[in-house]
Design goal:
This protein has 280 residues and is an all-alpha fold. 59% of the residues lie in helices and 0% in strands. Helix 1 packs antiparallel against helix 2 and helix 2 runs antiparallel to helix 8. It is globular.
């Protein structure tokens, strides 16, 4: 007869610390979820001709929310090299993990964009058989009509600064953050708001992985102009460099304007699910 155990006699739970490989897989998966919803909704609107700007903004925000829920317990769900960089500079995140996290984020975005490209291939071919700029914006951002590269660069700096400033505010345990299980939803709303307020100039990439991964996927699947903007100039670098600068500005502003003035909290532990900052 099989031996049974009562709850009191059950062996103690094993508390595992995630390995770097495990953390990279979490960042890969969380970023992939973000892109499946974000790039997927743009494909539905542009190629499937179903929906509009509002559905794009909401789906991107929900993609962020779901991605954070996927990776949050393991890594805090950066899902964005600009966020990872800001956390290393301002929040003590381990520098040795910055490049591995960023690589995992780009690869997750790349893989998810390939899935969208495959699933929506017929719809894309129907509206844009030549894979031109008409549908390139499904995968990567472009400057809006009449918007210069300089303005697009500035737009990405400002948008990412807002993103990081508010992420720091939402995840600061000494401030008035939401409960740990609600923070992903609030961060998703931040992205929705940025889309509504800052989406027209340059498509609010505000995330080098979100833009470069899908851009590479489109380049390798027929979009020969993927690295350029409609005027012919190289553009791929703008949604990479500008968000990194914006993240540092947003983090610095939060530290100067808010963090340094917060009251000290004794014996306060960071709630589960928040962004980890210790080098473990």
């Amino acid at each position: 007869m099989a031996e049974t155990r009562t709850a009191a006699e059950a062996p103690p739970a094993v508390h595992r610390q995630p390995t770097l490989a495990g953390e990279m897989l979490a960042e890969f998966a969380g970023t992939a979820i973000l892109i499946l919803f974000g790039v997927g909704v743009v494909a539905q609107v542009v190629a499937g001709q179903n929906g509009g700007d509002d559905s794009i903004h909401w789906a991107w925000g929900l993609g962020v929310t779901f991605g954070v829920y996927v990776a949050g317990r393991t890594t805090g769900a950066h899902l964005n090299p600009a966020v990872t960089l800001a956390l290393a500079v301002f929040k003590g995140f381990a520098w040795r993990k910055v490049v591995p996290y960023s690589v995992a984020q780009v690869l997750g975005a790349f893989a998810a964009a390939l899935v969208v490209r495959w699933v929506y291939a017929d719809a894309i071919a129907t509206v844009d058989a030549g894979t031109t700029f008409d549908t390139q914006g499904i995968f990567s951002t472009l400057p809006g009509a009449g918007v210069s590269i300089g303005t697009a660069f500035l737009d990405q700096v400002v948008g990412t600064a807002i993103l990081v400033f508010l992420i720091f505010a939402v995840t600061e345990a000494r401030a008035t953050p939401p409960a740990a299980n609600l923070a992903p939803f609030i961060i998703g709303l931040i992205v929705v708001a940025i889309g509504f307020a800052w989406g027209s100039n340059a498509g609010y990439a505000i995330n080098p992985a979100r833009d470069f991964g899908p851009r590479m996927a489109s380049f390798l699947t027929g979009y020969s102009t993927a690295m350029r903007e409609p005027g012919g100039q190289f553009y791929f670098w703008v949604p990479i460099v500008a968000p990194l600068i914006g993240a540092l500005i947003g983090g610095a502003l939060y530290r100067v304007l808010i963090e340094r003035h917060l009251p000290e909290a004794e014996d306060e532990q960071q709630p589960a699910g928040r962004i980890p900052t210790e080098d473990d």
